[in-house]
Design brief:
Layout: E1 24-29, H1 33-49, E2 57-62, H2 68-78, E3 83-91, H3 97-115, E4 120-127, H4 130-136, E5 137-139, E6 142-143, H5 144-156
Parallel strand pairs: 1-2, 1-3, 3-4
Antiparallel strand pairs: 5-6
Length: 160
């Protein structure tokens, strides 16, 4: 497992560009909100720690992870952002619904990255159990939202 003995929240601030001038969009799935809200908070705190300004962060909520792609596309089209973070959580159930949602969401975010000039960061947990999601949203493996925020800053600064 990739996260065994790894804390996702650790970063070296000295190696990260300043986020002071970045306009950052964050699209958050309301589904599994007990997971997505801590992911958002982790991302927000890391962005602020790296110099982002609260007034330059735009948060939109969407009903579920499947809707993240449209939310991110609409944000890129209307909000003049430098980067978008897509935050979601899909937990395996008893049907194949998990595979469809995970696949469509990942492909949609990949497509936005290929078709648009604004990076979209994939912060969608796709876990087998609720405990795995808890462990990655502020639990024993740290907070994947922090990792997404750092990736967002680096990608928005790429080439600058």
């Amino acid at each position: 497992m990739a996260t065994v003995n790894k804390n996702l929240s650790v970063y070296d601030k000295a190696t990260i560009p300043s986020a002071k001038d970045l306009r950052i969009g964050i699209v958050v799935s309301e589904w599994n909100g007990t997971i997505t809200e801590p992911l958002f908070q982790g991302a927000r705190e890391a962005l602020l720690d790296c110099g982002a300004q609260e007034q330059h962060m735009i948060r939109w909520n969407v009903p579920g992870s499947y809707e993240l792609v449209f939310g991110c596309k609409k944000m890129i089209d209307t909000q003049e952002v430098d980067v978008v973070i897509a935050i979601g959580s899909v937990i395996r159930g008893e049907t194949s619904h998990f595979e469809y949602v995970c696949s469509a969401t990942a492909q949609g975010i990949k497509d936005l990255n290929v078709q648009r000039d604004i990076p979209v960061i994939f912060c969608v947990l796709t876990d087998d159990t609720l405990q795995q999601s808890i462990d990655r949203s502020g639990g024993k493996h740290g907070n994947k939202g922090i990792e997404a925020a750092i990736a967002a800053i680096k990608m928005a600064s790429l080439g600058n």
